[in-house]
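User: structure tokens for this one?
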Amino acid sequence: MEWAHIRIGSGTQIATGPGPHRASFRAGTKFLVTEFRYWRPLATSAFVVPSFSIVTQRMESRTKTLTAHGLFLALHCYTLGQGPLPISIWLLLALVIGKKAMLIPKNLLLYLDPVAYVILEPWYDFHHDTAMPPASQASHPLRLLIIDRLDIQPGEIDAARTPEDHKAWTITVFSRILLGHPSRGTIQTFSCFKTGSTLPFKTINNQKPFPFLTCMYDRRISSADDVFTHIEYKIATQAREGTTPYFVKLFEVFLQRYIHGVGHPPQLQGIEPELSDEDFEAGVGDPLLRAHLVLGAAADYDMLPMQHEWSIDFRFLGQINSDTDLTEPLHFHSCDKYVSVELDQGLQGLLLAGLGADDLDSSPQKMSTDQCYPLHSRVPPLRADETVTYAAVLTRPIMDEEMSSDESQDSDIELLSSPRILRRHPSLQDHLDFLALQNGFNVAVSPLAIGTLSQPNEIHDLSQDDPSDNETDLVPDDGGEVPGINFNAPVGPLAPPRAHILADFSRELDLEMQLENPPTVLRELMETVDGLCLLSLAFGPLDSAYAAPGLSYQQRAGLIIAEIHRLRGDAVEPVAEDNALPPTHSNVPTANLHLSLYFVGVQTPMGSRTFVRPLQLAAPDSTLLTRLIAAGRPLGRALGRLGDYGAYLVGTAKVPIAIEADYMSHRHNFRQLGSWHDMQTSPTLGALAPVPHSRLSSDLLTAHNMDLDADVYVLYVYHEDADTLTGTQPALNAAIPLPPTAVGPAVGPTARNSTTEYLRGTFPAYFERITHAQATYGTAYQHCLIERYIGSICREVGIVFGRTITPGRTTAGLDIYPNDVSTAAGIAPTTFSSYRTDFTKARKVRTLLQRYRDLREQGPVPGVDDQNEVRFGVLLPMLDAMLGPEILAESFLSDTSGGPEAQAVSQGITPFQRSITNAIRVLEHILN
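Assistant:
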């Protein structure tokens, strides 16, 4: 057998060990479900189940095969600690505990098998003392379930049922839907499975089977972070030059780019045998597919390991022959779940060359077979005949004040370092000139012969042997003078210099440079001379702004950091007023164009990034987002990827704070504008005003060489998971008409004045309305109003909801948290949390229904049956009434017209939750 994890870097061979063992179980499970005589998929479930129907096959042979299948499934669970997907968990539960396996908790069925949950949902509201809906309600979901799915008439279920009778019906109904047969325990097929699995499943039966098997099946990869947060980087051997830790950091940066980029290296094709070439190509932008491929290659798992502290180790080998290029720098060892990374010269060159690319994406066609798999770069692959070695010689001229007037700048040269064999790099001259200008160096580049590099004066001129190289100034054979070199002359390659090169420059830079909160990778790289030089050489080509005359060391260092932030997509780091920096790009438009600076933070479930771009746009209006998308990458590209999703919201603030920070803080006057979908056409953005003048806005304008009176606009586009307490914050304050109440000044806490007493004494009107809502309305609208009123109190106190909760603080220094507010209202914090969850979902459904309505006006929408069409037509008006700014009057409780307001005030929370869950399931599938 050819094992994919060994084919990468090692060739095909016989494999043994834990990795192939896991792969065997994976392959065996995938093979089983293709045996149509024994297995079949169910339309009523997300899983595959046995084929219980009799087929044209000798019973003796069938019995033996099914018994072996049962044993295999049990061993799969016993050995891997994972469910044998896609085989049904309900089958395994039935094998372990029998018919009681069909008495499935509602939330568990919804979580593990949402397809079946939609079908069985009406049964959960049908109890032993519940009457069957009459025949006049022919479209009732319960009657449809019984007639269409069970193929019986509702009258066959006795109206007078004992709890035991009802339990027996439940087992029959669930067995039919989940296993495809109403009496699975009485047929021979099931008995064969049970015979084969009895011994290994004894241990599971002695535990708690439901949570035990649920844990085994709940190992599916739901996001790329499920895998990539378990990657660890370890150094096995160090290079003599001491550069290994810095290349490891660069590798880490590249791996992050790979995770969130576009494209797959061809070496990963075939890791998942069931993944077709078409699906492989179609998944070039899918981080989830990348996670599956890496986990499969490194560990031979298709689900997450059961251990809590599992990891995939990348072990770096720095002490190798760095002058060679290996065909496969990465070797996967699935037995022990690690990847050996050989930092040969080719991989080092790829890391250095690719890090400077502004475009982080790479299609599979641009990946060469000699480039390691997780690294994406626009650098074209090197051919064997292109491998030419070079050496760079850095020299220091005598300064002007040390020379007589009739001496030239380059008449006296001090050789600072021994030449070194280096690999081709596309922007050597820019790199070296920049470094030289930092400390008054001149630079010369010379082709070298390999193996002749013992002393500087042994450099050999091979320029005649390689006429394809660009013309350069060469070091004479006698070790004579080195003239200066043209700043823009493109010449050959460079690898990191030794530690002593530019040591004086680095020491002075270390003393003067004071940057605020550099990113972790950058800070570690800059702690030593080698790391600093490596970073300086990695980013190119560098434009003339870096070499502008009159810049201090600190300003030049700041420009390097700004460029690294831009390339890596880090948070924008404001600089101090006395460290104002020149423009980071030579092509930044000049101030007389009266441009505006757009400070835009984009947050998705995969990560966050802040963009700062000077753009020549008309004043903000309803088309602002469309124009920002059209402005081009990387800002336009990031916004364009959001598509038309309703899961994103748009906000603004009066202070430009990076979205990676606490941007939702009330101190920054953060406010939500509306959904991403609505804001693309809403006139709300027409009222977007520039931020007031501040030190931060001035720093941003100065850094981009813009007039200090230019407009700075701040926008945040963020996922709804990072939403504030409610989704209608501005309207909510105005939406709650409070009677005038004489409230004295806020009283600080004393020994006898608790937080609850303080809140109830400060906000009595809100708490009166909460009590009134609890005694008046249906439970759904009760929860809606309670969430709204508590949210208003939280905002007035100053509580801020974001990735972390910032408590409000009274004038007396009392910290107030959301739990304090809900407790003061007599509602347990966990209960209030469930209210908030319910109505976050409700607001999401309302947005989805509005989008569906817009699509429906253009014609029928595929995927929505008549039943859901009717449900949606009722649900949207009810949500509009329930979530609108006006408090619905009590008089609607006696309204018998069935209007949306009447439904909203009388709705029970259980049917309301059911409607919301069904709408999310159907609409997300259709609209996304």
